[in-house]
Amino acid sequence: MNSGKGGLNPRLYNSALKLLSIRAHGTEELRRKLLNKGDAGDVEAVLAELLRKKYLDDQEFACQRARSACLHKRWGSLRISQDLKNLGLDDRIVGLSLEKALAEFPEEERLARVISNYQKLYGRPTSIKDMKKLFDHCLRLGYAAEMVRPRLESLFSSLSWD
Question: Could you tell me if 111 and 154 lie in one domain?
């Protein structure tokens, strides 16, 4: 039902504004949510208006999300990249956003902090089983195995191989 100013569906437009007031969204993510509430034509009109008013900006959204993932969640680049792609952002935007975030928060430093924090919580690994748990934790956070292995080398000397 198109009505209201500029042919926009006011109910759908208000839903979009409410979602954006809660947190930033990418265009594709917001499109998916709005399609549950209205038809495709109305959704596209609302998205066009939000883009025109600069309430939606995929590049800025991706940069903020990548930065937040680095700073607060301590995610590695693999997990951040997957998160952004899952939100419907294209590879170019994902790449640029990741590049900016990694320049500000180098991955090696974040990985070192992840390992340090893990050891504060669970202690220094004393067995192969403990080491595997730490290694798997780093992988789940999105750090590449090739980056994690060298970081854990120094811990191998204190392991019990039983």
Answer: yes
SS3 105: coil
- Tell whether 11 and 45 lie within a shared domain: yes
DSSP element (H, E) containing 49: helix 40-52
Looking at 72, 89, 104, which one is the last position of a domain? 104
At residue 142, what are phi and psi to the nearest 5 degrees? 100, 20
Q: Are residues 111 and 98 in the same domain?
A: no
Range of the domain at 25: 5-52
The per-residue pLDDT string of the chain (162 residues; one tens digit each, 9 = 90 and over) reads 444 445 799 999 999 999 999 999 999 999 999 999 999 999 999 999 999 999 999 999 999 999 999 999 999 999 999 999 999 999 999 999 999 999 999 999 999 999 999 999 999 998 999 999 999 999 999 999 999 999 999 888 777 665
Q: How many domains does the chain have?
A: 3
The CA distance from 70 to 41, in Å, is: 37
> Residue 30: helix, strand or coil by DSSP?
helix
127, β-bridge pairs: 160
